Amino acid sequence: MKIGFFIQNDKRGGLDTFVINLINFWPRKKDNLFIIYNKNHKGIIDYKKKIKRNIKYIKYDYFLTQNFKFTSNFFLKFLIKIMKYILLFNSIYFKPNYFEKIYRKNKIDKILIINGGYYGGEACNSALFGWKRYKPNDLPWYNFHSHCKYKKSKIHFVENYLRNIIDKKVLLSSKGFISVSKACINSLKLRPILKNSKKKFIFNGCNLEKKSNFLYKKNKFKKISMLAVYEPNKGFQNIIKTMFYLKKLNKNLKLFIYGDGNKFEKKIIKTDINKYGLNDIITLKKFTPNIEKIYSTSDLIVIPSFKEAFGYVVVESFFYKIPVLAYRIKSLNEIIKNNYNGYLVKKFDTKLFAKKIIHLLKNHKLRNKFIKNGYEDYKKKYTAELMTKKYFNLIINE
Question: Hey, what domains does the chain have and what are their CATH numbers?
Answer without folding.
Answer: 2-205+384-397 (3.40.50.2000), 222-381 (3.40.50.2000)
